[in-house]
């Protein structure tokens, strides 16, 4: 994924032996020290988000074992629910999309990885970088499977890995039955181009809508209003400048997928009075065609 916020989570964010020598702990310490309050606000975010996951029955309790069980259920396709509050959005509120001091500190530690116990760190990050380098939609089930294969029970209790696994809860559970097939219009008509929802990411990695820069948290609302107005005629045009940072493109793409997922879930509940995953094939087809993923290449 080339330098994305996702890799920041996974490369930024184990066992109990040699704790002081773990590279994960050195990176966590660096992260906290880079904050004006020495990490107090981030530690509170981790605690509060974990409590939210428990309250919404995504986790059973605050133990490392509970997190491991949740990821096992995600990997098997049994856990589809996403939390009501996005962890990555709250992360942005603390750090913004980039934080130079934090990145520079991390780079220095990684360069000295031979001075730390770093085997699991390298295995963890290398596996996930391969997924995010595919330049495709991020599959929650696939990510959960790899994390669960690499991490042991005690690892889930470390704050370094909690940052990573909390982010995965934000991903769309495509295994829940929602169709994320993309229809690409390679030769769109003038009418289709005119009617498309156009979002651009310019060379400065700013998100542009109607010739004005917008914040990433505005994309969901814009998309929702557009889809509710156009329904089956909805078409997306997401253009990215070659100099734009890939992490911005990836975040916008994932946000679009998640918003579309939410619209389909809401339609299933309002029209058929049951969750999307409980729909029969005819009902699913109706929901998916009402809110399709059609894009202009």
Question: Secondary structure elements and their pairing?
Answer:
Blueprint: H1 5-11, H2 23-33, H3 40-55, H4 64-75, H5 87-95, H6 100-111, H7 119-132, H8 140-150, H9 159-168, E1 183-185, H10 190-195, E2 197-201, E3 207-209, E4 212-214, H11 219-230, E5 236-240, H12 246-272, H13 281-290, E6 294-296
Parallel strand pairs: 1-6, 2-5
Antiparallel strand pairs: 2-3, 3-4
Q: Which features would summarize this protein structure in a list?
A:
4-stranded mixed sheet; alpha/beta; disordered N terminus; 2 domains; 297 residues; two-stranded parallel ribbon
Give an overview of the whole structure.
The chain is an alpha/beta fold and 297 residues long. It is 53% helix and 7% strand. It has 13 helices and six strands. The strands form two sheets. Strands 4-3-2-5 form a four-stranded mixed β-sheet, covered by helices on one side. The chain has a two-stranded parallel sheet with strand order 1-6. A hairpin with a 5-residue loop joins strand 2 and strand 3 (207-209). The protein starts with a helix and ends with a strand. The model is unreliable at 1-19 (pLDDT under 50).
Helix content: 40-55%
Q: Which quaternary structure do these chains form?
A: single chain
Strand content: 5-15%
Poorly predicted ranges: 1-19
Number of helices: 13
Radius of gyration: 20 Å
Mean pLDDT: 80
The structural class is alpha/beta
DSSP, total strands = 6
For the biggest β-sheet, the strand order reads 4-3-2-5
How many domain units?
2
Taking the alpha carbons of the first and last residues, their distance comes to 20 Å
Principal-axes shape call: globular
* Helix and strand run: HHHHHHHHHEHEEEHEHHE
| Main sheet record | 4 strands, mixed
């Amino acid at each position: 994924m080339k330098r994305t916020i996702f890799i920041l989570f996974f490369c930024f964010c184990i066992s109990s032996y040699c704790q002081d020598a773990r590279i994960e702990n050195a990176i966590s310490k660096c992260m906290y020290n880079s904050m004006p309050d020495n990490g107090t606000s981030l530690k509170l975010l981790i605690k509060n988000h974990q409590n939210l996951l428990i309250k919404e029955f995504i986790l059973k309790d605050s133990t490392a074992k509970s997190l491991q069980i949740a990821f096992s259920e995600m990997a098997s396709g049994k856990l589809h629910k996403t939390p009501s509050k996005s962890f990555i959005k709250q992360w942005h509120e603390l750090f913004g999309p980039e934080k130079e001091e934090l990145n520079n500190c991390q780079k220095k530690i990684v360069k000295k990885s031979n001075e730390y116990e770093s085997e699991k760190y390298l295995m963890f990050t290398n596996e996930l970088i391969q997924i995010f380098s595919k330049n495709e939609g991020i599959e929650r089930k696939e990510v959960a499977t790899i994390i669960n294969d690499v991490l042991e029970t005690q690892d889930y209790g470390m704050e370094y890995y909690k940052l990573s696994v909390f982010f995965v809860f934000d991903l769309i559970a495509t295994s829940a039955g929602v169709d994320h097939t993309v229809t690409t219009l390679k030769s769109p008509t003038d009418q289709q181009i005119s009617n498309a929802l156009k979002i651009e990411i310019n060379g400065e990695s700013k998100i542009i809508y109607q010739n004005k820069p917008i914040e990433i948290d505005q994309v969901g609302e814009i998309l929702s209003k557009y889809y509710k107005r156009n329904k089956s005629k909805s078409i997306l045009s997401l253009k990215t400048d070659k100099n734009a940072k890939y992490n911005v493109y990836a975040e916008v793409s994932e946000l679009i997928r998640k918003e579309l997922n939410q619209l389909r879930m809401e339609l299933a509940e309002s029209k058929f009075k049951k969750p999307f995953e409980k729909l029969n094939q005819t009902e699913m087809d109706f929901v998916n065609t009402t809110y399709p993923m059609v894009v202009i290449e």
